[in-house]
Amino acid sequence: MNTIDIQSLTVGYGKQIVIRDISLSGNIGDIIAIIGANGSGKSTLLKAIIGDVKQQNGNIFFNGINSYDITTRQRAQIVACVEQETYASQMHIYDYVMMGRTPFRSLFSLTDSDDDRRIVSQALDTVGIAHLANKALAETSGGERRLACIAKTLVQQPQILLLDEPTANLDWANKVAIINLLRTLAQSMCLVIVSHDVNEVISVANKALVLAEGHSLCFGDAHKTITPENLSQAYKTDICEINIDKESRIMMAKGLLKLKIEN
Questions:
Q1: How many CB atoms lie within 10 A of CB 11?
Q2: Directed axis angle between helix 172-185 and helix 142-154, to 10°?
């Protein structure tokens, strides 16, 4: 039984189909990359998993249970999503992260429980920003806000963690910190990552779904699916592979290589 199992999923907005007949599966310990060009349906797939858009066909199973058979509150206790952007408000990081405990609290609860406080403190420690707990989001860097957003999802204690462009607009040091954190988190949950940075996901993902215009080109072992041939088809441009050593490789659009040579 898979932690997440998507079978022949079709999703759209009104009469417009965005993704069609998509399937993937993963378990605790898997890091699944979803890659493809702009408009290929990556973010829509994440929205379908968390229930923000309704599927028109197919099924999503969590631990063998059909998503149709669980409530919104139950889904939020299984799957959490790290959004692309965290707004720089005056809310303190501790209070922001505490919001992630909402699915576990009574509608009439006015105070945080001891368990809530313990779980929030643990999440802040895990992502390395416990020292920023009483700092306003507006007073932190983009990287720190991204870590706060991850902490907010961790307090939901999910089995499945979705991340939409988790390192977008961050500098290299923050990118490395986030990627290393994801490797740690994958030890206790299944991660699903949407990213435009193919080389970043090559370094961390063990499975990959390559999308092209809302369809699945392939899904499976990341090393076998993230290839120049598949990427060239997905991005409609020539992609080549550069081998750095026996274990490291990067993908590059040939057009960018030509620009570097000419300059």
A1: 22
A2: 10
In this predicted structure, which of 57-61, 130-134, 171-175, 225-229 has the lowest mean pLDDT? 171-175
Buried b (16+ CB within 10 A) or exposed e, 191-211: bbbbbebbebbbebbebbbbb
Report yes or no: 225 and 210 within 8 Å, Cβ to Cβ.
yes
DSSP string computed for 65-89: EEGGGS-HHHHHTTEEEE-S-----
Sheet with 55-62, edge to edge strand ranges: 16-26, 4-13, 55-62, 65-66
Check the CA dihedral 17-18-20-24 and report its sign.
negative
pLDDT of residue 107: 67
Distance CA 153, CA 79 (A): 9
Distance, CA of 61 to chain centre: 18
Torsion of CA 149, 61, 77, 206, to 10 degrees: -40
What's the number of CA atoms in the CB half-sphere (13 Å) around residue 63? Answer: 12
- Determine the pLDDT at residue 87: 76
- Closest of 50, 241, 251, 261 to residue 163, by C-alpha: 50
Other residues' Cβ atoms within 10 Å of the Cβ of residue 246: 6
pLDDT one-digit tens code per residue, 178-197: 999 999 999 999 999 999 89
